[in-house]
Amino acid sequence: MELPTYSTEGTQAGAVTLSDRLFGAKLNRDLVVQVATSQMSNRRRPLAHVKDRSDVAGGGKKPWQQKGTGRARHGSIRSPIWVGGGVAHGPTKDENFKRKINRAQGRAALAAVLSSRVKEGAFAVIDRLEVPSGKTKDAVTALTPVTKHLTGYRAGGRILLVLPGTPADLPVRRATENLPHVNAIRAQDLNVLTVLSFPYLIATQESVAVLEMTFARS
Fold first, then answer.
1. What is the pTM of this model?
2. Helices 169-176 and 136-147, interaxial angle, to 10°?
3. CA geometry: angle at 115 spanning 110 and 118, to 5°?
4. Looking at the DSSP assignment, which residues form a beta bridge with residue 6?
5. Distance between terminal CA atoms of the chain?
6. What are the residues whose beta carbons fall under 8 Å from the beta carbon of 30, sequence distance 6 or more?
7. Which of its termini does the chain have fewer beta carbons within 10 Å around, N or C?
8. pLDDT averages per 10-residue partition of the chain, 218 residues
9. What domains, with CATH codes, occur in the chain?
10. Could you give the angle at the alpha carbon of 194 between the alpha carbons of 189 and 197, nearest 5°?
């Protein structure tokens, strides 16, 4: 599969051959949902935490004798039915939400969502992206002409900028930090959940090679 590459002026600069294994895969919705929900679960951090009766201080002494008072039997003032007592069956920070994702599953799901973006015309390749000044206005000047080749793109649309992950990326990252609709990511860090979070992708030609080397290997 061939895809045109564009310069920062918006003109076609050439073409790049994409791996069918990574950019020509069929969309398996069930697999994509499984991998995406697993990633969200793995990122989840339990915050809600309550103390049960063993964690609450005090209550070591029986409140009153078992019989003869006319009152109900109680063994501790830290029982869940007492005010100030422990909580029964409440949430704790010990809960584990982790889910395992096989490497083959993750790569297959990533290939499916990337292929979907290519088919939708929401994936563009730029031959080279350099912003030596590190200024936001220069990043806008470089990216705006390329966005015209994204199907259905409108100003302010969320863009995921895929970079090759070299030291030369630092000025580009600095220049795009103040753009609320643009997020830069290293090609080797690309994942299903991130791709699904952005309707449009722009990748440099060098980062496409990194993607194929990282995720299209057998």
1. 0.82
2. 90
3. 130
4. 12, 126
5. 19
6. none
7. C
8. 92 93 94 96 90 90 94 94 93 89 94 96 94 94 95 94 93 94 96 96 95 86
9. 2-44+98-215 (3.40.1370.10), 46-96 (no CATH)
10. 165
If we measure between CA atoms, which residue out of 175, 130, 179, 185 comes closest to residue 155? 179
Q: Residue 155, CB half-sphere, CA atoms under 13 Å: how many?
A: 2
Strands ordered across the beta sheet of 200-204: 12-17, 2-6, 123-126, 200-204, 159-163, 182-186
Question: What is the Cα–Cα distance from 19 to 23, expressed in whole angstroms?
Answer: 6
Cβ(4)–Cβ(12) under 8 Å?
yes
Angle in degrees, CA 202, 151, 195, rounded to 5: 40
- Length, in residues, of the chain: 218
- What the block records as the tokens of 111 is 């290939």
Count the alpha carbons within 13 Å of 41 in the hemisphere toward its beta carbon.
13
Distance CA 40, CA 46 (A): 12
Contacts of 163 (CB under 8 A, 6+ apart): 129, 169, 172, 173, 184, 185, 186, 187, 204, 207
Question: What is the predicted pLDDT for the residue at 46?
Answer: 87
Q: CA quadruple 173, 179, 182, 183: dihedral positive or negative?
A: positive
CA–CA separation, 92 and 109 (whole Å):
32
